Amino acid sequence: MSANTVFSPFEKMECFSLNHPVITCQEAASAKGIPLHNELKSLIINTSKGLCVLHIPGNKKANLRSIKKAIKADEACLAGEAALEMLQVKAGTVTPFLKQIWDLPQFISNEVLLNDFVSTNAGVRDKYIIFDPKMLMAHTNIMIGCFHRS
Description:
Blueprint: E1 16-17, H1 25-32, E2 40-47, E3 50-57, E4 61-62, H2 64-71, E5 76-78, H3 81-86, H4 99-102, E6 106-109, E7 118-121, E8 127-131, E9 142-145, E10 148-149
Parallel strand pairs: 3-6, 6-9
Antiparallel strand pairs: 1-8, 2-3, 2-5, 4-10, 7-8
């Protein structure tokens, strides 16, 4: 399995193509013609306890203080280029179902789970998937809470 292979059992998800590459949630939602809150924003977070992934609606911003509090970490910040490179991803290609991302602890903002569907990239900037956000609940190391701010 290559680094950018979608993680089983989700590897059979239908993948759609965009007319052009996108990086931000705003660009992605616009290109897909969906509401921004249905675009899943997945961020790699570097904490004093290690790397984790934060999933929030595309129209929200990360609340790193809430992650620090939840895991009793001293520090939490967006992961830098070195961490992304180590995970073999770059901005606009972080998706929950890549094995190297799925293997990390997951933080899911409760508002994500209120959506009928979410969409995110398929590990590349010009392809995407649409899925029921409850699929994220299949992870064995998740924490659900209010990890976003408006």
